[in-house]
Design goal:
Length: 195
Amino acid sequence: FAVFSGHKALGPNGIGVLYGRDDALAALPPSRTGGSAITHVSMESAEYMPPPYRFEPGTQPVSQAVGLGEAVAFSSEVGMDRAAAREHELVERLVAGVLETPGLRLLGPQGAEGRVALAAVSVDGLHAHDVGQFLDEQGVLVRVGHHCAQPLHRALGMASSTRASVQLTTTEEEVDRFIDALRGAQKYFGVEVAR
């Protein structure tokens, strides 16, 4: 199987892709039922349409499907190698900015190698939700919390972290704005460390 969410592929929320062999998909039970997914229903049993229809009950998210199609076309036009190279450049800048700032702790690899297009950061002396609120007020969008990795955060002795991601259309200025906003949060909350 191959699975991905639309919003992780530069497309809209509310849609994704499940790709697999016909026999494997036919063996999967549907997670939801409804119109267009069933061929016959009685009080005792239900018979489902063949894949992919058995997994698509009800009204389909047409605008999301069009948006995802455009995102896939854009990604195909740009090329995955070019997108990956651009993301690597941006991650190098992101990681360098975090590592050169005292009081910031980078989770994961301490360089751009082996790192996906994001950085999770802890700011010494601050809770990630406070950092996120400050960055939001600066117009910098991040995710804060456990990022579905509570055991990792516990193992690192951290309550939570602030995560920023980059992608093909992210600019160097946006990466710098994120680093500057983290430094601004340190100053605002009085936890700035001299560089």
